[in-house]
UniProtKB/TrEMBL annotation, chain A:
Gene: phnL
One Gene Ontology molecular-function label: lyase activity
UniProt organism field: Alloyangia mangrovi
Name of the protein this chain belongs to: Phosphonate C-P lyase system protein PhnL
Keywords: ATP-binding, Lyase, Nucleotide-binding
NCBIfam families reported in the protein's UniProt record: CP_lyasePhnL
PROSITE patterns: ABC_TRANSPORTER_1, ABC_TRANSPORTER_2
Gene3D superfamilies, per the entry: P-loop containing nucleotide triphosphate hydrolases (3.40.50.300)
Domain named ABC transporter: residues: 2-226
UniProtKB/TrEMBL annotation, chain B:
Top-level taxon: Bacteria
Pfam families documented for this protein: ABC_tran (PF00005)
Gene designation: phnK
Gene Ontology biological process terms, A to Z: organic phosphonate catabolic process
UniProt cross-references to SMART domains, sorted A to Z: AAA (SM00382)
Alphabetical list of InterPro entries matching this protein: AAA+_ATPase, ABC_transporter-like_ATP-bd, ABC_transporter-like_CS, P-loop_NTPase, PhnK
Protein name: Phosphonate C-P lyase system protein PhnK
This protein's UniProt keywords: ATP-binding, Lyase, Nucleotide-binding
PROSITE patterns reported for this sequence: ABC_TRANSPORTER_1, ABC_TRANSPORTER_2
SUPFAM superfamilies the record matches: P-loop containing nucleoside triphosphate hydrolases (SSF52540)
Record's signal peptide: none
One of the record's GO molecular function terms: ATP hydrolysis activity
């Protein structure tokens, strides 16, 4: 479902003496439907960079990033937007929402964006918020005033609302208590069972072992630093 | 599928000075495009050229009309362009006073647009006006007040109601949240985003506020000195800017 071949990336800092910082070279991996692959490596090895490139958030310098039949490294913005609506989901570490929108609508939005009805979206949002132990009295409020852990759970609910065939998870269990962590791991298992291809970053080793089928060490893709 | 708006090589000079140069992009149905850049970068000039308020020196602005398919707006006759501006386009000005009739009641401001496209039944017009005032969160008991008696945020919401009541397909917005305080901005952003999604609108939004484009725009175009220096998905341009000017722009935003 996700096939990456020979992807490289450098950052050019035009306002800092045009410094060129190569961050990735020859990255290749593939993930089959129903499989969950963990990206591992030290901080700064490029796990998030690789994930952001797959999502089209960072531009790839070279190589191919196939998600389904779209090459994210070359696709038009319009094609990436469609891919993100229908095929490729991303659970980031931070929730970014329009102020004042109620939590229920924030979670239901991906269902509507993918073409689901308002009723479907609401039903799915209610189910996920309840499973993730967000008290019902908060559902009609905007999540902007929620605690960090609550925001993270709303973000996860939103990420799992639509049944994306491919999912990117950036530290989905960070800052969660044991109960909610177990719920998130269940959600990941369910996504795998329905055939989603998943790439995740998990600093939580137990969580990683529980749901991931393989590990890929991204430090293998780090360019050799000229000393 | 054809683009709703296809902009090809649009160039405008003010004397020897470049207003905007060789701008090209396609806007697809349902897409929101943001244009950012500092003051004087040509964003507003471009918006005026696209919306038929200013004649560019060169280029084409092809709009996919309901009746005849894609047509160059710049070569249309004036009455045709005016009709299009009333039925298919909307223009939300930065300053609500530029987009409203200040001496006419709030209901009249909304109703006038309906009458311009042929509505004649007073009761229907009033009912639709009240419905739209409700959608932009202006209560029914203010329908007979003049916009002069409204706050800045309310005036802006009234301007949006006046513009969207005829069900346009393309909305041009020039700094729609400029000059409003942040709590009012948030309310307006929420409103705009809801309307864009419900009505399937396409929009071109000019602003210098990067937070506004991140929340509203699917795609982003960065202008400097009349030229487009970078385009792409909004989050990609903001998170991984390629051009030196965009990097400067993004890194200059104060973190809250």
């Amino acid at each position: 479902m996700i096939r990456i071949s020979d992807v490289s990336k450098s950052f050019v800092l035009h306002n800092q003496g045009s410094a060129v910082i190569p961050v990735m070279e020859g990255a290749s991996l593939s993930v089959a439907p129903g499989e969950c692959v963990a990206l591992v490596g030290n901080s700064g090895a490029g796990k998030s960079t690789l994930m952001r490139m797959i999502y089209g958030n960072y531009l790839a310098g070279a190589g191919r990033i196939m998600v389904g039949d779209v090459d994210v490294a070359r696709a038009e913005p319009r094609e990436i937007l469609t891919l993100r609506r229908e095929v490729l989901g991303y659970v980031s570490q931070f929730l970014r929402v329009v102020p004042r929108v109620p939590t229920l609508e924030v979670v239901a939005e991906p269902v509507l964006a993918a073409g689901g009805s308002a009723a479907e979206g609401e039903a799915r949002a209610r189910e996920l918020l309840a499973r993730l132990n967000i008290p019902e009295r908060l559902w009609s409020l905007s999540p902007t005033t929620f605690s960090g852990g609550e925001q993270q759970r709303v973000n996860i609910a939103r990420g799992f609302a639509h049944g994306f065939p491919a999912l990117l998870l950036d530290e989905p269990t960070a800052s969660l208590d044991a109960t909610n962590r177990a719920v998130v791991l269940e959600l990941i298992e369910e996504a795998k069972a329905r055939g989603a291809a998943i790439i995740g970053i998990f600093h939580d080793a137990e969580a990683r072992e529980a749901v991931c089928d393989r590990e890929i060490d991204v430090s293998g893709f780090t360019p050799a630093r000229a000393a | 599928m054809t683009p709703l708006l296809s902009v090809q090589g649009v160039t405008k000079h003010y004397g020897a000075r470049l207003g905007c140069g060789d701008v090209n992009f396609d806007l697809w149905p349902g897409e929101v495009m943001g244009i950012v850049g500092e003051s004087g970068s040509g964003k507003s000039t471009l918006l005026s050229c696209l919306s038929g308020q200013l004649a560019p020196d060169a280029g084409k602005v092809v709009f996919d009309t309901r009746a005849d398919g894609p047509r160059d707006v710049l070569t249309m006759s004036e009455p045709e362009r005016r009709m299009l501006a009333r039925t298919d386009w909307a223009f939300v000005h930065q300053n609500a006073r530029d987009g409203l009739r200040m001496g006419v009641s709030a209901g009249g401001n909304v109703g006038e647009r309906l009458m311009a496209v042929g509505a004649r039944n007073y009761a229907d017009i009033r009912a639709q006006a009240i419905d739209w005032l409700g959608r932009v969160e202006i209560s029914e008991d203010r329908v007979d007040d003049r916009p002069r008696a409204f706050s800045g945020g309310m005036q802006q919401r009234l301007q949006i109601a006046r513009n969207l009541v005829t069900g346009p397909r393309l909305v041009f917005m020039d700094e729609p949240t400029g000059g409003l305080d942040v709590s009012v901005q948030a309310r307006l952003l929420d409103l705009l985003r809801g309307l864009v999604r419900e009505m399937g609108l396409s929009a071109v939004i000019v602003t210098h506020d990067l937070a506004v484009v991140r929340l509203l725009a699917d795609r982003l175009m960065v202008m400097k000195g009349g030229r487009v220096v970078e385009t792409g998905l909004t989050d990609q341009v903001l998170d991984d800017p390629q051009h030196g000017y965009t990097q400067l722009l993004v890194s200059s935003v104060l973190q809250v």
